[in-house]
Amino acid sequence: MKTQQFVVIGLGRFGSSLALELIDLGYEVLGIDKNEEVVSNMSEYLTHAVVADATDEEVLKSLGIRNFDCGIVAIGDDIQMSILAAILLKDLGVRTVVAKAISILHGRALGKLGVDRVIFPERDMGIRVAHQLVTPNLLDYIELSKEYSIVEMTVPQTLDGKTLSEVNTRAKFGCSIVALHREGKVIVAPTAMDQLHAGDIMVIIGSNSNIDRFESEAVNVN
């Protein structure tokens, strides 16, 4: 099976972290940046890294951009360059185009250009940290929509030894425990008879209000 190929345009903090994680996951990554020093530093880690102007159509064509499965525009400080790079990726036939936005207006513009996914790293991280600060048992938070989320929550002593059937989150709280992390292992789709142990990590999906209710009524019971 052919390994998926990604091109990351902009190798700043966000772009380089994304590119390195994709490499760790076993994918091929071409990194593009105008800064020669940045490219030199990344070249030993990425499949390919080149110094290039991502707003030059002929340059992108020469790099075979149309053959990539996904293009990520990770330019964070130049909205015009970000938009031009996204337009070229779409025009050159990259299957999926993802772009980082630094403002709501920037994100709207990218969306109107047909970018498949617009991401707001700083905003999303701020939201996640805020939820972690106000919910002590919350380890991670992913917003699926304005109403629904997936969260990782530590199993407290109050739920230690209880089975999922006893906790019965779906019937009592309208949310579901879809996985458990325990001692380095992951239990996907745990059964009703699986027991919770203090320190386990529950992966919970549901509406924000139902997850909040579960956290306040079940997790924080004294």
Strand order of the largest sheet: 3-2-1-4-5-6
Q: What is the general shape?
A: elongated
Helical percentage:
25-40%
The fraction of residues in strands falls at 25-35%
User: Which stretches are poorly predicted, pLDDT < 50 over at least 5 residues?
Assistant: none
- Number of helical segments? 9
Q: In angstroms, what separates the terminal alpha carbons? A: 53 Å
The biggest sheet, with number of strands, parallel, antiparallel or mixed sense and barrel status, is: 6 strands, parallel
The pLDDT mean sits at 86
Order of helices and strands: EHEHEHEHEHEHEEHHEEEH
What integer value in Å does the Rg equal? 21 Å
Overall strand count: 11
InterPro entries: NAD(P)-bd_dom_sf, RCK_C, RCK_C_sf, RCK_N, Trk_Ktr_HKT_K-transport
Domain RCK N-terminal: 3-119
Protein name: TrkA family potassium uptake protein
Domain RCK C-terminal: 136-220
Structure description:
It is a single chain. This protein has 222 residues and is an alpha/beta fold. It is 37% helix and 26% strand. It has helices spanning 13-24, 36-42, 57-62, 79-91, 104-112, 121-134, 164-167, 169-173, 208-219, and strands at 5-9, 28-33, 48-51, 70-73, 96-100, 117-119, 138-143, 148-154, 176-182, 185-188, 201-207. The strands form two sheets. Strands 3-2-1-4-5-6 form a six-stranded parallel beta sheet, with helices on both faces. A hairpin with a 4-residue loop joins strand 7 and strand 8 (148-154). It is elongated, with a radius of gyration of 21 Å. Residues 3-119 form the RCK N-terminal domain.
